[in-house]
């Protein structure tokens, strides 16, 4: 069983070290992770500058790129084999609801999924690494389970897991949930640099807007470990017909207009 | 009618200049775009360094960040009002099928959508800007139509549009399509630097794998302008039940397990 | 007569545009300048990442590197010939006294000098480009003079020129000066980012400490254009003997200790 | 006795770790070093983006900036006191002759010197860290000596030290030398990226041109540890008169010309 491990907080983050220790005996685990913090890097790939891969003292490899770069490079040449599972995390903070769109942790896992490999992204719901040992233990339980049991869906699949920062004894069961929704992000924060230039900082993510029962927000608030299966089909199939009507009157310049 | 215009090729790219000229008389159009090429930057946001906004000689504003940063900063404070439409592009190359996951052009539009504003991402299917005038004219037609007609869906909506690089007369009708799928990306390309270090470059996107009738690949290959409505719900609703069964046997450490 | 022109404020800065216009008819002038502002980049070279050279619309070429990178790449291959003179500037602000150690404007000129080519660095004493036309006219006068007259020194030579921001009619004569000295720089400026991290900013250069008659500070304060010939021999020849005595007692491990 | 230690290879480089271990008992030694490799960064300062200071697990502090940034920030606020000595290195490779102009190792030491603090830059003459223990032991000997003996010159002073990569027993005595000179650098190296863009790489430093007896090149080739006192007065005093004659004929526009 071959497992590729990455993250978005960088190869020296406590979260990836804890996750590595937790799952290392479940298979051949290789780490290819970003050199630096890549929070909110989404699925970004580095197209216009070269990537370098270095070996860290602890056997991890790190890349001067994004989470998706790490998985991409690993899968398209660096590893020399196709892993059975891509695991990402444990992230320093929640990736629930709309966070998944921006998350580098999810981006790393999704890159595996887009190459046809099952993948799991793990996050703690609060920043600061409290009870990281408990999160790592829960992560191990889920990885062990997906390796042991026939997956419920055709390959590949992609799971987004959020774990409350609680002692192991206080963590409740795994709960399969849909993603909730957040309110719009906070206002941009502006500061003036000593040179008199205005600096803008992206504000905090908005609070939960849809945190009804059945969502990841709801489950983790109760102490459950949320598990959300993701799929990556952005097409709004229900809307195809309506839009067809709207564009129908537009001119078709070409001869075969139709 | 207030329109925010951005892109991912940078504020000096021919695509955004052409699009601005094409739609400027349809409303109050403001440009906030990246300083540099941000291809494949997906929905990435810059959280850990400050963003600066500068005025270009032509009235555009540019930001030392990603496409999503530009729209985010514009909507959360820079503009001082909420635009009626966010438009992104015209991109230098296709954003079809899985490209949409990585695309900074789509990322900019999606940022508007996530703030509740209708948005359109425009791309030419080939790189090199050939027949950019025709693409801009087609973009104008669609923007005009969505401003004029009641949208078929509740707000917000998000359209991904790909325009073949053809003379205007050869372009066929707008065609509403689902996203196709691509094969996995090409192998990573490695080079050795003069210092003896191995440099890795992300390889080209894979060829179309699902380009059946009804897809954006199929429509644009025939000369149509593809229009794909997108939605951003990554939850795989159909898979919730199966995964619930799989995680059910896992231990619930906490007292309220269940 | 072949002239290579560079700067540190970037190829789009008013200073390099004005200088180009002022000297373009004095020879074949080619511009290879940094893409971005590189103030205070000293003689820094980019060793560990590749440099790209692009053509701007106005015929200038720009490089994603430092001022010294620009001149280095131009002289070691890009130009294909050896220019007769390297000119740098006009810089946005003074490069007097200790500033020359940090200055990218001087760094670009010094790179030419280290390749054996005479070089001149031009700066305005105040930021903001006021009376840039007068500075460019003065720069032209000096370039014309060094092209016309036999230089007083063996090749190569290196001149550091600072021009007060005054109308042409108010500028006094060129005055050859030594460099003055500045007091230590201002205290570092600290700010707290919205994420609670302390950010440090390099403070302003110190005020003049040695601005006696004969220095660049003194001359420019009176309205003169200061011209300081530089040489690059960092050895403190007068101190060699004293240090020899100090290290003499140290052990010589090797067999041929001497 | 308070010592500030920095380098240009980054805070995790073997050279700074070895130097720290070698001198830590000679005083209160604090490390403030760059986060990343900053070879050839000269005296560059970061003016236009904020610097962050982080604590490493081993007690070192690291900064996302240049060697000169590190020393600058330390001396203008971070340390809260004025150290008695600034030490930089041990560098991975020679800083002899013209190298000193580009060297980040020398740049860090020179920043201390410009703030009025004695400073020493240490380098090994070959890359690769062979016999680093011997170099560290030699560095300790010199630091011990300058702390123990009255310096031969008024404060501040600045030493540039190059140590052959030899076993301790084979290293010969410290030898006070002037800087040699190098031939011009090698030709720029060009490569084509997979996107078809030409990438340029700064070529290797040139071979020694002036390596006569009395130079650092000569001494280290014989196995000596070269010690070169530096001073930072770029004015070419001998040339002032000649240049005065050359500029004399130029027009003085201003009323007080003269």
Explain how this protein is built.
Four copies of one chain form a homotetramer. With 258 residues, chain A is of the alpha/beta class. Chain A has a single domain (2-181, 209-247), classed as Stationary-phase Survival Protein Sure Homolog, Chain: A (3-Layer(aba) Sandwich). Helix content of chain A is 26%, strand content 23%. Chain A has seven helices and 13 strands. Chain A has helices at 14-23, 67-78, 99-102, 104-114, 132-148, 216-221, 240-247, and strands at 2-6, 28-34, 53-55, 61-63, 85-91, 119-124, 158-163, 174-176, 181-182, 189-192, 198-201, 208-210, 225-230. Chain A has a nine-stranded mixed β-sheet with strand order 3-4-2-1-5-6-7-13-8, with helices on both faces. Chain A has a two-stranded antiparallel sheet with strand order 9-12. Chain A has a two-stranded antiparallel sheet with strand order 10-11. In chain A, strand 10 (189-192) and strand 11 (198-201) form a beta hairpin. In chain A, helix 1 (14-23) packs across helix 5. Chain A is globular and about 60 Å long. The model of chain A has no long low-confidence stretch (mean pLDDT 94). The B-C interface holds B 47-48, 50, 193, 195 and C 47-48, 50, 193, 195.
């Amino acid at each position: 069983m071959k497992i590729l491990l990455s993250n978005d907080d960088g190869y020296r983050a406590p979260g990836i070290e804890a996750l590595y220790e937790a799952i290392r005996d479940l298979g051949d685990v290789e780490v290819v992770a970003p050199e630096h913090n890549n929070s909110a890097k989404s699925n970004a790939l580095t197209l216009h500058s070269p990537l370098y891969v270095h070996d860290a003292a602890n056997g991890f490899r790190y890349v001067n790129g994004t989470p998706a770069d790490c998985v991409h490079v690993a899968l398209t040449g660096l590893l020399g084999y196709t892993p059975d599972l891509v695991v990402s995390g444990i992230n320093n903070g929640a990736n629930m609801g709309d966070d998944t769109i921006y998350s580098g942790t999810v981006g790393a896992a999704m890159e595996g999924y887009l190459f046809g490999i099952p993948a799991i992204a793990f996050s703690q719901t609060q920043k600061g690494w409290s009870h990281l040992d408990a999160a790592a233990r829960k992560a191990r339980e889920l990885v062990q389970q997906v390796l042991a049991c026939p997956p419920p869906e055709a390959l590949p699949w992609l799971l987004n897991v959020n774990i409350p920062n609680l002692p192991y004894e206080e963590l409740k069961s795994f709960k399969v949930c849909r993603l909730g929704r957040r309110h719009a992000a906070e206002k941009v924060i502006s500061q003036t640099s000593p040179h008199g230039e205005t600096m803008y900082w992206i504000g905090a993510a908005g609070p939960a807007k849809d945190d009804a029962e059945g969502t990841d927000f709801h489950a983790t608030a109760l102490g459950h470990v949320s598990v959300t299966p993701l799929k990556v089909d952005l097409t709004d199939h229900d809307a195809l017909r309506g839009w067809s009507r709207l564009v129908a009157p537009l001119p078709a310049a070409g001869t075969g207009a139709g």
